[in-house]
Amino acid sequence: MSLSYWHTWYQQYDEPSSSLNRRLAVVRQRTAENLAGGTRAQPFKILSLCAGDGRDIIPLVAGLEEGCYQAALVEIDDLIASSAVAHVNELGLQGVTVTVGDAGVTSTFAAFLPVDMLLLCGIFGNISEEDIQRTVAGVPAMLRPGGTAIWTRGAFEVDIRPLVRAWFVEAGLEEIAFDGEPEGYGVGVARKPLDFGEPAALPERLFSFVR
Description:
Layout lengths: L2 H8 L8 H18 L7 E6 L8 H4 L7 E7 L2 H14 L4 E5 L14 E6 L8 H14 E12 L6 H10 L3 E6 L5 E7 L20
Parallel strand pairs: 1-2, 1-4, 2-3, 4-5
Antiparallel strand pairs: 5-7, 6-7
């Protein structure tokens, strides 16, 4: 798909009445809650896949003390990623790194794992159901015990949000929150139990965009 599509798509975040703008507010709310009540590991590690320009996480970590967190953002579109870099530099955030690369390939971010918070936002609506299930199954291997994953998925013509929620439970995670109806989007939060056993190894590829 042409990368220019994503540049146009991202402009919807700036429209106050758009579904993406409303979803962003929910993602920020759930992210802030988990930053405040996370596993307290030092530093608190955050990984955002398909992070875009980082608008869901950068404003939040900007209010944290330097040294108490590390955030890694992965975005394949270099122009969109450059916006994230500019924002990080403007705020002088030493704890945030932006990687231009394919977030669907685990080697892109494997060195940063495991993390306390994993953001999977804007992904599940653009990949196959098989890839969604594969990604969800890989979440336990990406999280520290007690860590959380925040994910999004729209309803579209066929609403598979209940199925995605079930896949997280099948993967051994606990659903902490789900914000959906009456909106056309869904924002889920799932936690890895403290007593989670040894997770399965991550595959080389989790997903590929198809939309």
